[in-house]
Each structure stands twice: as C-alpha cells, then as structure tokens.
Amino acid sequence: QVPLVESGGGLVQPGGSLRLSCAASGFTFSSYYMNWVRQAPGKGPEWVSSISPAGGSTRHADSTKGRFTISRDNAKNTLYLQMNSLKPEDTALYYCARARNRWSTLDYDYRGQGTQVTVSS
Hints:
Blueprint: E1 4-7, E2 10-12, E3 18-24, E4 34-39, E5 46-51, E6 58-60, E7 68-73, E8 78-83, E9 92-99, E10 108-111, E11 115-119
Parallel strand pairs: 2-11
Antiparallel strand pairs: 1-3, 3-8, 4-5, 4-9, 5-6, 7-8, 9-10, 9-11
C-alpha cells in the first residue's frame, strides 16, 4: 500500500480559496511525478494539475489555469493544491495520485481517498 492522504477540502463561497494537502508515505515521494485529479458527481475523473519530482515544472488543465497552483514540499512528503477564485463548477472530490509515467495525467498507480470541495453560496 502507498498511503496518500488528502485534507483541506470544505465548503467555500464562489470566489473563495482553499488549499488542499496530500501527505505521502511508504515510497520515495521526491522521485515521482504527482497529480491532482477531481471527480464531480455523475462524471468521470478530470485531471487538474501535475508536478515534476523536484517541483520545478508544473502543468494545469485549461479549466484551472491561472486559478490553481500545484506545489510540493519534498522534505515534508507533501503535495499541495492552492485553489483561488473558486467557481461552482469546481465542486468535486479532489484526490492526489502518483503518476505511473512522467506527465501521465489519468494513468496513475496509487491514489488517495480524496477530499470534498463544494463551492456554493
């Protein structure tokens, strides 16, 4: 098992911000590309963001570009997602995932249970 545990979700008003965290253990976190993925009710998984092992390169889905920022702290084995200017359509279960290959988006070998983000007034 490769535990990935997310936290930081909740209910936020449109335009608000949240910071998600993903604590990793059981593997060499700093060696892996990591992703954030979300899944809204009744929809399939949607890739959100990816980050390189050292954190120097990132990629974001067009739907979140300019609003979300992925980062990592390899000393703490933790992945982050800073979400600003949240919209109702961002409502979903967000989970972190360990990419199977570099820059693979929805191809991952481990994922966490997720943390719920609800954007509503």
